[in-house]
Amino acid sequence: MGKALIIGCGGVASVTIHKCCQNSDVFEEIMIASRTKSKCDALKAKLDGGKTLISTAQVDADNVAELVSLIESFRPDVVINLALPYQDLTIMDACLLTKTHYIDTANYEPTDTAKFEYSWQWAYRERFEKAGITALLGSGFDPGVTGVFSAYALKHYFDEIHEIDILDANAGDHGYPFATNFNPEINIREVTAKGSYWENGEWVETEPMEIKREYNFAEIGPKDMYLLHHEELESLALNIPGIKRIRFFMTFGQSYLTHLKCLENVGMTSIEPIEFEGHKIVPLQFLKAVLPDPASLGPRTVGKTNIGCIFKGIKDGVPKTYYVYNVCDHQECYREVGSQAISYTTGVPAMIGAMLVMNGTWRKPGVYNVEEFDPDPFMDALNQWGLPWKEDFAPTLVK
Ligand code: NDP
């Protein structure tokens, strides 16, 4: 059917690239372009020989002119941005200049402020509309599948959804005392920030990890989980009419939290540059350099993830609850694509979002979050491409 340019060649991109190659009827040709070309070449060497034609390139995704000339030379139907949130705006600019559809999995974040929100990317709406191209924002798992689950619940089971609790549990064990499952810099910025949730039309802010609950997850068992701010709260608060409360919880083990507290207390999670032996270094970037590469966790991680949404609302005047979730096994992911489940659960929805934009099912000029499209084709594709979902019509609710 067409061509995709994939920017970034880290943990998530590797899964998306494997999945594009499995789906060669849609992804006839892909180009993998990233900062370190050798990583792109290594992946190409592993996957070459199938029906999808693969090429590679070096690109600095902070540089719009470089991106434009790469897009103009390859002429992709879509650009799948799997670099870091810092590159979202430059890649969107390049897509605008070349009139190419855009997909990502994380919203823009400036490098010097640990703050992520959609305002910067939503500001591109009119320009994307005028250019006749689609930007699909947040097509990972959370954000991503959690938004699709919400649209699906609203379409099929509720007249009004009043409450959503998004629960992200990872019972994976990689054997290290401390490591992060995706880019450590982005991960640590997220979990050390203040928490917040949406209630009755406004944001309620909490201290980091202030709100803790225990939940008994299907196929995983009981886990401690903590309330975090998360980007889909912002778009769901606007796109789910009548919503009164949305919260996001993620599980963390005690070892992770103890290490994080210690690193925070000694200043290692700071993003303020410091002077070190004549160089300016950012402590968090230095920490990233000494931590295990998330891509290396695949072979050693055992256990499962369970990510889903619990909804509370009404149907035909009757109160109703509904839980939809996916359980993913780290080792099964590793056997299939050589990555652990966190990269897998993000990389598969990125491929699905790109497929739906490429085949026209989810194409609409402008800038959209996933829940603004018909969820059914995405839900079918999740079952087909490795992330089957399960439903519970009488779930235990989070207090
Ligand atoms: P990695 O750090 O493993 O990969 C990032 C890749 O981007 C690397 O290959 C890196 O190059 C490349 N890159 C970084 N800066 C540039 C640049 N300026 N120009 C070109 N390439 C660049 O991250 P992950 O794969 O773990 O995460 C990828 C994205 O997925 C992130 O935005 C993350 O926030 C998001 N994510 C979303 C989730 C969701 O559910 N929605 C969950 C998990 C992650 P190099 O190899 O040289 O470092």
Summarize the structure in words:
The chain is of the alpha/beta class. It has helices spanning 11-22, 37-47, 64-74, 88-98, 119-122, 125-131, 145-156, 184-192, 231-239, 254-265, 283-290, 330-337, 341-358, 376-384, and strands spanning 2-7, 27-34, 53-58, 78-81, 101-104, 134-137, 160-170, 195-199, 202-206, 212-217, 221-227, 245-251, 274-276, 279-281, 304-315, 318-329, 366-369, 389-392. The strands form 3 sheets. Strands 7, 8, 9, 10, 11, 12, 15, 16 and 18 form a 9-stranded mixed sheet that branches. A 7-stranded parallel sheet has the order 3-2-1-4-5-6-17, sandwiched between helices. The mean pLDDT is 96.
Which terms would index this structure?
single chain; 399 residues; alpha/beta; nine-stranded mixed sheet; 14 helices; 18 strands; 28% strand; globular; binds NADPH dihydro-nicotinamide-adenine-dinucleotide phosphate
